[in-house]
Structure formats: structure tokens, C-alpha cells
Amino acid sequence: MAAAEFPKHPFLLTVREVEQAIGTDVDKGLTSSRAAELQQTHGPNELDVGGGIAWYTIFIRQLCNAMILVLFFAMALSFGVADYIEGGVLAAVIMLNVSIGFYQEYGAEKKMDALRALSSPSASVLRDGKSIVVPNAEVVPGDIVNLKMGDTVPADVRLFEAMNLNCDESSLTGEAVPVEKQTANDIMIPGSDSSTLAACEDDVGIADRINMAYATTVVRKGRGRGIVVATGMQTEVGKIAASTSKKRRKAGRSMNWKKYGKAQPIKGAARRTYDFLGRFLGLTEGTPLQIKLAKLAYLLFFCALLLAVIVFGVNKFVSPLPKEVVIYAISTGIAIIPESLVAVLTISMVVATTTMRKANVVVRDLSALEALGGVTNICSDKTGTLTQGAMIVKKVWLPPSAIYTVTGSADPNDPYKGTVSDQPQAEDGSRKRDFDEERTTQAVKFDGVPNEKLHPPRGPAPESRMAALTPELRLFLLAAALCNLATVRYDEGEAAWKTTGEPTEIALQVFAHRYDRNKKAVEARGWKQIAEFPFDSTIKRMSVVYNPPTAAAAERSNDDDDGGFGIDANASSVVFTKGAVERILDLCAYVGTGEAQQLMTAEMKDRILAQMTDFASLGQRVLAIAYRPWQGRYIPPDSEKKMTATAPGDAPSEEDAARAAVEKDLVLLGLVGIYDPPRRETSPSIFECSRAGIKVHMLTGDHPETAKAIAKEVGIIPSNMGVLPSGVAGTVVMKATDFDRMTEAEIDALEELPLVIARCAPETKSRMVEALRRRHAFMAMTGDGVNDAPSLSRADVGIAMGSGSDVAKSAAKIVLTDDKFNSIVAAIKEGRRMFENIQKFVLHLLSSNVGEVILLIAGLGFQDETGFSVFPISPLEILWINMVTSSFPAFGLGREKPNAGVMRKPPHDKRRGVFTNQILADMMVYGLLMGTCTLMTFIIVVYGMYGGQLGHDCNRMYSEPCTAVFRARAAVFAELTWLILLSAWEFKDIRRSMFRLNPDDTSRFPLFKDLYENRFLFWAVAIGLVSVFPTVYIPYLNRDVFKHTAISWEWGVVIGMTILYVVGIEAWKYVKRRFNILDDHKVVQGTWSQGEEGARKFYKSMGLGHVRSWLSAGRTLSVSRTESRSKAHSAGDLSTASTQQRTNSLPPV
């Protein structure tokens, strides 16, 4: 795909220079013919993020599995010696394994195809002098694009017209606040003095190129036009997508002999060959479990070859070898290979992914679910993951000392959820308790620890009520509603509140709506907008001018002549302004209204700034709101002149002069603290991670103070940093610029990696991932923006949000459709459940294989008159036990529920994986016990009853001299089947007794209840126990197929040995418990744990003591929702509050 060529980056050029370089016309746009030519040159405007994986790629990937390759080899040998039954069974096993894996992975890809949606399906462009709508893919460089509120920008655009244009670039840069756009090319270098202009692309980052609009970002307000300068993979989003999928060659793989020496081509070729073979065989790439199972498969394969050689050696390598000896050798080799392991593992993962899909987690890669169980660190984005991704007014300060607090607001868009409480600002030493200083998140949700618990009231508790609508608050609401472009409405069809506009303005509009003073209702009263001075990022404020309703209009609406807002209806125009606190204070001459009004002095300004700092320390974005009555009717400047686009560099002096005349001698009405509330479940989820030995890191593009405050709220860092060691406290929160300046050696020298990194760039997140990897951590990276994609692809487990960008979802292995952090914890818990269950059925399968091998190898010593070994168990009996007897109980073990302590253990060691010391020890103990019991059974039957008569040619057919061997085989087959089946019940818990699996159960004999809890496993074992009888007694099937015959007294030996085996297992479990050996110890909690404080308050709020208040709140919210519907229908019918008073006359201006 060709890229458009410019002498410098377009943001450094004037509009005219961009126009000439790309060959377009800002007034007419491209011609249709020119657009068609550019379409051929530049290709479609689409991101090549890999899309779906082809079905044949998935199929080949399933075939190239280590265990499947070993089974292929065994199948070929079976067919080679004309043993079609055994070969057919192995072929069926291979087909089953491949089919299950293919079906699940292909289904996951189809699910992802449904999630992939074009960011902007169509775009409005100017061609041939006319505005037309074209598919997003047909946008080409040089197109003139029209942008309006709500549009997704279709490509990278150099703006030449921007009318109050704000774009949400959080998905690209991580910055939560929408960016105000301009058209001039006088871009300043951040952090430099005002005279330093950017001269090259490296001087200014993407976020500061404010005359550019980027592909996939969203227009939050205003409108604009621009020239498309990059499409598809040439856009900034495309570059990130390309870096995500770019392959990086490992060190030492170069073939450059000039740079590395003459021997380098040989070394490079050898290492590349090693990489290819390791990747093909699954020994170097994949999750820890995949690599471990691949190594196990090849180890068992070589063991099988060794066992075959032993079989041939015992039979003296006679030539030609009898067919039965070859089959026995193959069967002995197959006995050590758990043929059903891949199928059991895959089906267990299918069940887990189905469970997770119901819990809003889409698993794109089966291996990712297993990998989650070993996660030691989670690197999470803030906006939308830890927080709700929506702004809400939390605090309002009205001079001289009134503070209003919003509590109980569960939905930022619903103005009738929660209450507004007022409290005077107490003097130092007697300040009223502020819940936000204790826990801001809980103040919003549950009000923290109730004050009455600390200071019990002496009388009845007062009822919760909304703060009174005072004249000061009324005027503040008027300004907040009118100096605002957002809308809030109730949708009857969806029975929900809908909002449009920039999140900060939505929060203000929702707050005004709580007192039915929203913009629509106010304008219905007769307030008429005369002028607007849009938000300007250089001065960080916006203003509007309104004419109040006339006295007659106020009288018709059955309200006072001030319109219900403390403004004289016969007065002249009114100016309303909002913006950054420092900028607004510089324009204010007075503070407050009425009798409490004061002059703006230096001392007053310091007090207001201190109040702003107080709000900001709580993670809130603070704005100031002011107003001013205008002398006479305001006459706006020429509207045509105002709305005409100016060339870059031209100074709209008339508009600036008009704005300067309006924005002066203002009256400060108050401050408002707005913040993005953390999700209610975030803090308990982080605490759950802490108890599971998982550290949570927050990597965000937000301001450091905001990031630090939110991190304290959700419990990522402690409220009191003094609880941390001195070497950790200094680096627990870092800015990305400081982190990026550090070398790898300096990062590795840190005692602990930062828990919070603010102002993150994509490279910062990737460096964090690599730093964790150097510390041998197994990390999960969560994110939703395009800027998260590189780190998602490099992390061990990438977790994308369903509402995030397509690039992020394509780079991740797991997608959360509900975007919630607690879904990650649920996925980790499911991953740990999967890991424990994998351990259980691996132990079940491999211990039985060890027992079979012991029996078969020892059985080589039983030789008949001809010198050939007599099989203590026939080849078909081995396959029956391995494929039928073992498989279904193993499936049942894969469905076991997580035990109560699954999230109290540390993450498993990825270097050991499934095969911990306990699993290896158990496998050998139980395998030896099983092999010994079955071997003793064979000896007792043959030598104890029949004097060691081994007959003649008993491996081939039944004869009277073979009666002893055939009866012994039947007893061994029945016993081995029962031992394997009962061990499945024993392995429901590899440490606790089967007779009391639940330590909290107080019943006298809970065995049946505990076993029946997993019904699939219960019936798999029960049916398997009964299935022994038909295989032993059905004529022809027993003697001609399984090579055994009916038995009678031998059942006593079988039952006795089975009891002995169960006693042996219970004894070994008792030893492990008694001496506390081979145990996975619980995570040791320190003096402080992440999320502990918030989780304690969360669970306390869920207690029985709060049921009454919850029910009361439910009734209140139900009533308020009903009221909100009626209020939404009659937005213009406003009644004056009983506390309404006339505001005193305002100072002259």
C-alpha cells in the first residue's frame, strides 16, 4: 500500500501546503476519476489486523500436536503389522482429538468475526463539489471529510476547519479527556516556552498534534472538515497494528557474515533450524502446559521404544518375530502413552470456555485459559476496566463554605439514582467527617463506614433527603446546564437514560437534571442563547450568552419572574462561563452571590485553590463555573464572520476581542469535582488477586495525580504509603517519562516494579511487559485501546475489552465482552480450576499407565513351554482400559468444581507446570501400588490355584491347558478396571480422604453426597464398574476378543486387592497431611494487601445489617425511576422550590 508523500508531516504544514502536496481542492474535493485512481494506488482504507484464521490453518495446527504425532507413529506401526483393530482404534482417537480441538478453535474464531466491526462503516466526503456518503473502505488520501458530533473519524485527517471540535482519542493515546482541535500549524513543543514551535515530527507526540484527527477516534462535540492524509495501515492506528503483528527475529539468528563473522551463517542457520523444529514439535513455543505436555509426549515415545526393545529382547530377537510378540511390544509401548489425554484436555477446555462465555469471557485460544492459572501479574488499563468509563459529578463547592456530595449513584447517566447531601465546611479541628477521604469509591456506592457506627446517635436517625435547592445552588445549576452542549434524555423504548456529548459536560448536565434544571427544561422556560464562545484548549474555558425569559413568560409558566433561578426576568443578557479553575479565577472580580458575596482577593484565591487541590487529591477533575449579568442586550459579532473558516495563521481578532469583553469581571459561582468512578466490584477483585498471589499494576494515560488517587481508591496502592518499605514507596507510582528514561539494568535493579505508571505510551507498556518477563513473571495484559495492542500481543496472556478497538481484540487471546475487571478474576479462577483438574486427570491417566507398564514388564517373566512370554493382560484389554475405562472418569475429573482454596494458593510454577513434586510422587506411588496389586492377583490365580500352569500358545487362542492363564487375565482385567475407576473418585482431592472430601461437612458419613456432587464422574465410575461383567462373561467376546474367560472364586481376590489399593491410597494421603509434605502452601499476606480495605467495606455493605437500608434504597430508586419517567415527559414544567428566595442585586459591571 503506497503512502501519500509530504515534505514534512502534515501537522507541520499549512492547509495550503497539504492541499498542494496531495493534489486536492478544499472547496471541491477530489474528482470521481481521481478518487478511483487513488483507490488503486493506495488500496482500501482498512486495517490489516489479521482478521480470522483460515480453517485449514486451524486444522493443521491441531494435527501438529506432539501427542497426535506420537499417536500417528503408533497407528502406522499397528497397520504395518496388519493389526487393523488396534490401528483403527488409534485412528479413531486421533480423529476425536483433532475434531474436538478444531471445532472449539474454529467456533471461537467465528465468535470473534461477529465481534469485529468496522470502526466507521461510512464517511461523508466532498467529491466533484458535492457531499456524498461512501463506504469507509473507499476513502482515499486527498478526500475532504466532513466530521460532526458522533462520527468516527474514517482516516487520519489534517483539519482546516474546526468549530468547537472535540475528539475522544482515549483508544489511541489513553488520554480520557477529549482533545480540543484547532487548524493552525503553530504547534508548540510540550514543556517548552511559548516561543518554541515544533519543527519536526519527533518534537511532538501524537496526542499534542491538535490539528490532526485520527482514524478510529470519535467526535464528541462540534464539527469540522479536513484533508485525508493517510488511510489504512498508513494511519497511526495502522502503524500500531503493524507493530503488533510484526515478527521479531531472536538474537543470534542473523546470517550476516560481514557483521558477525564468517561462522555466523552456519550458527544462524543451525539456530533457525532449531527454532523451526522446536516450533513444529511444540517444544519451544506455547504456554507452559503445552510445552510440558509436548516434552512428556516425546519422553513417553522414547520410553515406548525402549519397552518394545525390552519385549523383543526377552523373546530373544527371534527372526522372524511372531506377530503376537510384535503386537505385545506395540501394546506395551502404547500402555505408557495416555492416548486419551489430548481429548480429555481439549474437552475439559471446551467445557471451561463454554462456562466462561456465559460469564462474558470469549476465549480465542484454548491454551490461554490454562495459562491464566499461572498468572503472577496483571497489567491493567484504568479507563473502562478498573473504572466505569463515565464521568460523574461527585463534589460541588459553593462559596463561602457549602459542599454538596453525590452519594449512591450507581448509574452515571441516571439523574434520579442517588442523592445530593449538603454539609457546611467545618473549621480545622472540628471538620465534619468526609467519607471520600476514607474511601471515595465506597462513598459513591455505599457511603463507606456508617458514621452512626462510630458515633451512635442518641435519638432516631434522620431520614435521607436531597439537599435543599438554595438560591446559590439554583444559580449554579443554571450556569452548569446552559454552558453545556450535552443532552440527557429518558428513552421509553429501552427504559434507560441516554446521553450525547462530551463526558464532562454529560456529568454536569446529569447533575443539573437531579433538580430538574436541565438545559432543555430551562430553554423551554424562555431562556434563549444569543452567542457561544466554544471551548479553547489554549485558554481552557467556554462561555455562552443567554437572554433570560421575560416577566410575562415567567408568569405564564406559573413561576416567579426570575425564572426560578435567581435572575431578574427584566434584566439584560447573562454570561455563563466554565473551565479550568486557574483560568476562571483570573477573570473573576467577585465570589459568591447575595449577602455572602465577596471581592476576589489573593487570600480568597488561595482558599479556592486549596479547595481545588482537595478535590483533585480525590481523583477528581475540577472545573470552575462563573457568570456575569451583561449591561443591556448583548449583540453578538457577525455570525457569518464567526462561522467562516479562517486560514491557518490568521488571527480572528474581532472574535477574540468580543470574547475578551464578555469573559471579564465574572462572579465565581462554585467549583465542581468530576471523576470517573471505579467499578463497585474492582476493589474486591483486586483483593482476590492479592490473596491469590497476583499483583495488579495500573498502566494508564491519565494524569499522575488522577492515576494515584484512583489507584488508592481501588486498593492498588495503600492510602498510607508508610506501610510500604522505603525502597518500594519511592517507585510504586511513576510517570512514563521517568520509567522510559531508565535503562533495563536500572529497571531490574528496582526492588519492586511500579504498581502505577501514568501517562503511558505504547512503548512504556511493552517495556513493562519485558521487565516483568525478565523477573520470570507470567503476566496478563488488559486493555481496550489501539495503544494497548503491542503490549497485548507481547504479554503471556492478552486480554482485550469487547468494546475496545479491533486491533486490540485481534492482538489478544481473550476478549471480555462486559469490560469488567472482575471477569478477569473469574477467568483466572476458571484457569486455576482447569489447572487443578488437569493435574487430577493427568495423575489419573499416568498412574494407571505406570501400573500397566509395571504389570506388562513383570509379565514378560511368565514364559510358557515354548519360551515365549505369556501376556498377563492382552493387547485389546490394554486398549479397552486406556480408551474406555480411563477416558470417561478423566472427563469427569475435568468437570470438577474449584475447591474453596483455589484462590488462596500462589500461582503455579510455570517451570514445573502440571508436574509438581506432589504429582510426580503420587504418580509413582499409586502406579507402583496398582502394578503390585494386579501382578499379585495374576500370581495368586496361576500359581496359587493352578500350580503355575501357563499352557501352550495361550497368547493366540483358548485351549484347555490355557484355562489358568485366561482366568488370571480376567481377574487382572477386572481388578485393573476397578482400581482405575476408584482412583478417579480418590483423585477428586489429591490430599483429603475420599470419605470426607469437604472438611466443613458435619455429617457422619458424607461419602455418597460428596461423590454424587459431580454426577458425570459418579455415573462414569458406576457404569464402568458394572461394565466389567459383560466383558468377562459374554461368550465369544471374552475368549476370542479379550483373550480371557469367565471367573468365579477369583472375584474374592479382585475385591480383596481393590480394598488393599484403596487403603494404600488413603494411607499415603494421611502421611501427606500428617507430615505436611508436598503441600501447596497458602499465600502469606503482609501488613498490607492490594484491595483489602475496599473489599472489607464492600463485603461489610453486603451484610445482613444493611438489608433494611438496601430494601429502602430499592423502593426509593423504584419510586424515583417512576418519577423520572414523568419528569422526562414534562421537562418544561418546573415548579419553584419552597426554599426559593430572591437573590440580592448583583454588583455593577
Write the layout of secondary structure elements.
Layout (H helix, E strand, L loop, with lengths): L14 H8 L9 H11 L12 H9 L2 H15 L3 H32 L6 E6 L2 E6 L8 E5 L7 E13 L1 H4 L5 E2 L31 E2 L4 E13 L5 H10 L11 H4 L3 H18 L6 H27 L8 H13 L5 H18 L2 E3 L2 H7 L4 E4 L11 E7 L3 E6 L11 E6 L10 H11 L5 H4 L16 H12 L4 E5 L4 E5 L2 H11 L5 H6 L3 E9 L4 E7 L3 H6 L17 E7 H5 L2 E4 L6 E2 L2 H15 L4 E9 L9 H5 L9 H10 L3 E10 L6 H10 L3 E5 L4 H11 L11 H4 L3 E3 H6 L2 H6 L6 E3 L3 H13 L4 E5 L5 H6 L2 E5 L4 H6 L2 E3 L4 H39 L15 H11 L1 H8 L22 H29 L17 H24 L20 H6 L2 H19 L3 H5 L8 H25 L17 H10 L5 H23 L20
Parallel strand pairs: 9-22, 9-25, 18-21, 22-24, 23-24, 25-26, 26-27
Antiparallel strand pairs: 1-2, 1-3, 3-7, 4-5, 4-6, 4-7, 8-27, 10-11, 10-21, 11-12, 13-14, 15-16, 16-17, 17-20, 18-19, 20-21
Task: Walk me through this protein's architecture.
By secondary structure, the protein is of the alpha+beta class. Helices cover 45% and strands 13% of the residues. The strands form four sheets. Strands 10, 11, 12, 15, 16, 17, 18, 19, 20 and 21 form a ten-stranded mixed β-sheet that branches. α30 (789-794) links the parallel β25 (779-783) and β26. α24 crosses α41 (1092-1101). The longest helix has 39 residues, at 821-859. It is elongated, with a radius of gyration of 37 Å. The relative contact order is 0.10.
What attributes does this structure have?
1149 residues, alpha+beta, ten-stranded mixed beta sheet, elongated
Overall pLDDT, averaged? 79
Q: Report strand %.
A: 5-15%
The low-confidence runs, each spanning 5 or more residues with pLDDT under 50, are 115-120, 426-463, 558-565, 639-652, 1102-1149
Tertiary shape: elongated
Distance linking N and C termini:
61 Å
Record field, number of beta strands: 27
Oligomer: single chain
Helix content: 40-55%
Structural class, by secondary structure, is: alpha+beta
What is the CA-atom radius of gyration, in angstroms? 37 Å
Largest sheet features: 10 strands, mixed
Helix count equals: 42
Keywords: ATP-binding, Cell membrane, Ion transport, Magnesium, Membrane, Metal-binding, Nucleotide-binding, Potassium, Potassium transport, Sodium, Sodium transport, Translocase, Transmembrane, Transmembrane helix, Transport
Main location: membrane
GO molecular function: ATP binding; ATP hydrolysis activity; metal ion binding; P-type sodium transporter activity
Family: Belongs to the cation transport ATPase (P-type) (TC 3.A.3) family. Type IID subfamily.
